[in-house]
Amino acid sequence: MKFPKIYNTYFVAFIATVGGMLFGFDISSMSAIIGTDQYNDYFDNPAGLRQGAIGSALAAGSVVGSAIAGYVSDKIGRRDSIMFACLWWLAGTAVQTATNGFGSLIAGRVLNGVCVGITSSQVPVYLAEIAKKEKRGQLIVIQQLAIEWGILIMYFVGYGCSFIAGTASFRTAWGIQFIPCVFLMIGLPFLPRSPRWLAKVNRTEQAIATLANIQADGNRDDPLVVAEWEEITTVLQAERSALPGWRKFVYNGMWKRTLAGFTVQMWQQNSGANVMTYYVVYIFMMANLTGNVNLISSGIQYALFIIFTTFIFFYIDKTGRRPLLIYGALIMGACHFVVGGILSSGEYVPGGVEDNENVLIRVTGPKSHTVIAFSYLLIIFYALTLAPVCWVYAAEVWSLETRATGMGIAAIGNWLFNFALGLYIPPGFQNITWKMFIVFGVMCVLAAIHFFLTYPETCGKTLEEIEEMFAPGGPKPWHTRPGDSKLDAHIDEVRTHNKHINMDTMQIGTTTGADEKA
C-alpha cells in the first residue's frame, strides 16, 4: 500500500521531530515526579547514586540506540529508522508504566533510551538531507523546539498527576508517553524518503523526483534541482572511492569532522544546562522554594526554553553557528559562576532540605532570588545558543557516505556525557554541593575556546561544500563567514546554459522557417 507523500518541508519537519518530543517527554516525566511523595514512598526515597542511576538510565539506552542508528539508517533509510525506533519506545513505556520497583523502572527507561538514541541522531540527518541550505538551520531547530514542547507538556502533566493518590500518580504520567509515539507512527508513512539516501542506494529516479518535489514543486529542470543533483552525484562518486569501514572517518581531514561532530554534542552536555532540566527541582529547593511553588517555578523555565528557542528559529540561518556557540558558552559560564558563588554562602542543612538528601544547602532572601534569576538566565541563553545550534552543527559536518553513522557518533557524544551527568549530579550535590556549578562554569569557558579554534562556519553552505571547510588546506575556522555558497554561482551557470540552449533553439527554428520560405 502506497501512502500519498507530503513534500512541504515544514510539515515534514513537524511530523519527524515528534521523535524529539519523545525525548522531552521522558526528561520531564522524571523531573516533575522525583519530588513527589508518591514517587519517593514507592521507590524508597532514592538519593545519590541510586537516583542517579534512575536519571541516567535513559541516556544509557540512548548510547546503545545511537551506536546502532547509523547501520539501521543506512540499511532501511532515514525515515524508516525512525519508525523502527518507535517500537522500542512502545516497549519501554509499557515496562515503565507497569513498573514494580527500581529494576523494572530502569529497564523501561533504558528501552525508551534506545528509541531516543536513534531518533535524536537520525531526525537531524533526515531534516538536513531534505532542507534547502538557507533553511537547514530552521528545520533542525524545529527538532529542538519539539524536545522543549515535550518537556513542557509532560512537566505539567506530571504536575497534574502529582495530585493523584498512590502509584497511579506516576503510572498515569508515564503511560501518557504512548500518545506522541502513536502520532509519530501514523504520520511517518506520509513523509518522503531522503533524496540523498535514495542516491546513496542507487535509486536514482526516485531521488531526482523527490529532490524536485521538495525543492521546485516537481520541476526536474529547475536550475536549483539540476545544480544540486550534480553536486550530490559528484560528491557521492568521490566518497565511494574513499577508504572503507572506520578509516573513512579519519582520512583526508575527515578526523576533524568526526571530532567536531562528537565534541559539539559533548560540550552541549558539559555546559551544565541539563542540570537545570533534570534537577531544577533540587536547585530551587536550595533557593528555598518548596512544594507547589517549586514545581510551578520549575515549569516556568521550560516555558522560557520554548519562547527563546522560537525566537532564534527566525535568526539561526542569519547569525551563523560560530558566534552563537562561542558567546553562548561564555555567558552560560558566567551564570554558573554566579549561581555557584551565591550558593557557596548558603547554610548547610544536615539531613537535607525537607529531608531530601540530595539538597544539603539552602539560601534565603535576596540570595535565593539571585539563584533563581540566574538559573532562568542560563536557560534563556542555552535556548538561544547551544541547545539548538549543537544539533544543527552536528548534522551539518558529515559527508553523505558517513552522515548516518557519523550522526550516531555525535549522538553517542551527547548521550555518553548525558549518562555521566545524570549519574554523578545527585552524588555531586551531596559531596561538593555548590562547587558543581564552578565545574560547569569552567567547562563552558573551555568549550568557547574549542569552538573558536576548531569549528569553521557552516551556515549558508551546502552539505557538500562543508567538506571543503574541513579538508586539508581549508580556511582557518576564525576566517570563515556565513553564506558565500558556490551553489548559487552554479545555479546561475545552469540558468545561463539553459538560456543559451533556448536561444540556439530559437535561431535554428528561425533559420529553418526562412529556408522553407525560400
Low-pLDDT parts are none
Distance between the termini: 60 Å
CATH class of the largest domain: Mainly Alpha
- The SSE order reads HHHHHHHHHHHHHHHHHEEHHHHHH
- Outline the biggest β-sheet: 2 strands, antiparallel
- Predict the CATH topology of the largest domain: Growth Hormone, Chain: A
β-strand percent reads under 5%
Structural class estimated from helices and strands: mainly alpha
Helix proportion: over 70%
Please report the total strand number as a whole number: 2
- Order of adjacent strands in the largest pleated sheet: 1-2
Architecture of the largest domain, according to CATH? Up-down Bundle
In words, what does this structure look like?
The protein has 518 residues and is mostly helical. The protein folds into 2 domains: 9-193 and 243-400 and 402-470, Growth Hormone, Chain: A (Up-down Bundle); 484-517. Helices cover 74% and strands 1% of the residues. It is built from 23 helices and 2 strands. The protein has helices at 9-16, 18-31, 37-42, 48-76, 78-97, 102-130, 136-161, 168-175, 178-187, 195-200, 204-216, 223-240, 254-270, 273-286, 291-313, 316-319, 321-343, 366-384, 386-396, 403-431, 435-454, 466-470, 486-517, and strands at 347-348, 361-362. Strands 1-2 form a two-stranded antiparallel sheet. The longest helix is centred in the C-terminal third of the chain and has 32 residues, at 486-517. The chain is globular. The N and C termini lie far apart (60 Å). Its main location: membrane. Keywords: Membrane, Transmembrane, Transmembrane helix, Transport. Residues 12-459 form the Major facilitator superfamily (MFS) profile domain. It is a multi-pass membrane protein.
